Amino acid sequence: MDSSQVLELITESMNAQEPRSGGVHVSSICAACLRKSWYGYRLGEFNDITGIRTLWFGRAMHASLNLKGFLKEQERKWENIVGTIDFFNPDQKIIVDFKTHGDITRQLPMPSHVQQVECYSLLNEKCGFGNIEQGFIAYFSKQSPYDVRICKAPLRPMENVEKQMVNIAGLITSDKIPPRQMGWLCKYCPFSMRCFGNTPDKLEMK
Ligand code: SF4
């Protein structure tokens, strides 16, 4: 075995994932490009090496941390929408979501991350675990995991969140491909060849 084969084994292990529950995931609903989520729903999610490392870092962080009074990795499914709450305090009805970020000095929280916490709050309520009182996002620096910044997530009324969440989930599961939302994500998007190529817009479900 040579060093490149060892690296390959490590990469393979970093990329190993537990099978996810079926349905539209909250992370897809809150993604920067719905077209990417639309592809991911049909073809499955996969990552380049940068994505694999980010995912692994996030997973390692989740696995090693526990918050007193909080339940970890709580899956909630309502209708065809599914999400996993990183940390949930059932007594105080608090959610804490963990994120890694390249620059935690930037303006945070990111709107898409707040939207995720809102969706988790709604799913929590719909599944009978009560209304969320407070939501927080803990940003861990990718450069130095000891640097953490905690941001409060302002939560909108749940009726508004439900309307938006159901509407977006409908767009992701619809036969019609959503328009491109070009931006920074395109550079890392595993579907870019398909998105900008001549592949027919209509895809059969797996
Ligand atoms: S390449 Fe860009 S526009 Fe196309 S699906 Fe990916 S993120 Fe969206």
Count of the domains:
1
Individual helix count: 7
SSE string, helix = H, strand = E? HEHHHEEEHEEHH
Through-space gap between termini: 36 Å
Going by CATH, the architecture would be Alpha-Beta Complex
| Percent of residues in helices | 25-40%
Oligomeric state, counting identical vs distinct chains = single chain
Please explain how this structure is put together.
With 206 residues, this protein is of the alpha/beta class. It is 39% helix and 19% strand. It has a single domain, classed as Lambda Exonuclease, Chain A (Alpha-Beta Complex). It has helices at residues 3-15, 26-29, 34-43, 49-64, 111-126, 158-173, 192-196; strands at 24-25, 71-78, 81-89, 94-101, 134-141, 148-152. Strands 1, 2, 3, 4, 5 and 6 form a six-stranded mixed sheet that branches. The longest helix has 16 residues, at 49-64. 25% of the residues are buried. Iron/sulfur cluster is lined by residues 33, 35-36, 180-182, 185-186, 189, 191-192, 195.
Features:
206 residues; alpha/beta; 6 strands; 39% helix; 19% strand; binds iron/sulfur cluster
Mind sketching the topology for me?
Elements: H1 3-15, E1 24-25, H2 26-29, H3 34-43, H4 49-64, E2 71-78, E3 81-89, E4 94-101, H5 111-126, E5 134-141, E6 148-152, H6 158-173, H7 192-196
Parallel strand pairs: 1-3, 4-5
Antiparallel strand pairs: 2-3, 3-4, 5-6
Helix pairs in contact: 3-6, 5-6
This protein binds iron/sulfur cluster (SF4).
The site of iron/sulfur cluster has 12 residues, from helix 3 and helix 7.
Short structural summary:
The chain has 206 residues and is of the alpha/beta class. The chain is 39% helix and 19% strand. It is globular and about 50 Å long.
